[in-house]
Amino acid sequence: MSDAAPPAVLVEGLRHAYAGGREALRGVGFRVEPGEIAALLGPNGSGKSTAFRILATLMRPAAAAGPSGRVEVFGACPWENPHAVREKIGVVFQSPSLDGELTAEENLRCQGRLQGLRGASLREAVGLGLERAGLVARRGDRVRGFSGGMKRRLEVAKAMLHGPELLLLDEPDAGLDPAARATLWEQLDALRHGAGATVLLTTHLMDLAARADRLVLLDRGSVVRTGTAAELVDAAGGEAVRLEPADGDAAALADDLRGEAGLSRLRVLPHGPRPALRLRRADAAAWVLGLRERWPDRFSRVSYGPATLEDAFVELIEPAAEVEPAPPARRGRGRGR
């Protein structure tokens, strides 16, 4: 028998369907090791929040047919043994849970009492929480005057008052500016190193996800890929080129480029304010220069560079139309040549 410690989070074959039969989770599986910061990354409707609620003991999975799968938090099942799981987790919801009329210290004291802390233990936990949130100097100020980033850091401090082993956060970066997101990450990293906490968060923003030790990409209830940010970027491959045609007809541009040597992963991106064509090219700089010389008036914007996590996200998750072979008649629509 192995003496190895169980993973902080183990999910295998997780399925859930809401009333009416809509499947939110379709056999999801991933694991998070103790001490890791992991992120469930995906667009709205990918199943992130449903998985979060199940892990947080807020709902029991119900498959449309067959078993619902296996979920463990440090070896305990959230719906079969919720009390054991709740002792080990701290939860930060996307919706605010602070009382704006109370001070930062009073918010923490109220939460501590709900967690059963009293006397010296409560004072110590509140003081440590304020220090970790960087709010010692604002401990006596009412929360209603705090910035979004300060409120989010206080939410994290509340969730960590009882010393949980796992911190769950649902879209903690929502509504925060880049500076506030960077400060939030510093707080989470400090909790990992200082308190030995494992962190699992949901997000659809790249900058926070890119710093995680492990990413789980979800789309329409299924795991698309798992790995580090670097592994996902490597999977994207080559240099990313984005071409925005001046006339907005990205499909016609794709037709004109189809069959050209050296191109890969040609995709029409019809969404967003400006339709575009995304592709991969090993010698992107020289190729783009030649393209602009060949069609000087064809593009409103051209960009290229090393593939990023956002490129990987677009390749693997974001709705996009794969370029299919065009009918011969469409070749007559080539322009700018």
UniProtKB/TrEMBL annotation:
Residues 9-245 form the ABC transporter domain. It comes from the Bacteria. Gene3D superfamilies: P-loop containing nucleotide triphosphate hydrolases. Keywords: ATP-binding, Nodulation, Nucleotide-binding, Transport. InterPro entries: AAA+_ATPase (IPR003593), ABC_transporter-like_ATP-bd (IPR003439), ABC_transporter-like_CS (IPR017871), ABC_transporter_ATP-binding (IPR050763), P-loop_NTPase (IPR027417). GO terms for molecular function: ATP binding; ATP hydrolysis activity. Belongs to the ABC transporter superfamily. This is Putative ABC transporter ATP-binding protein.
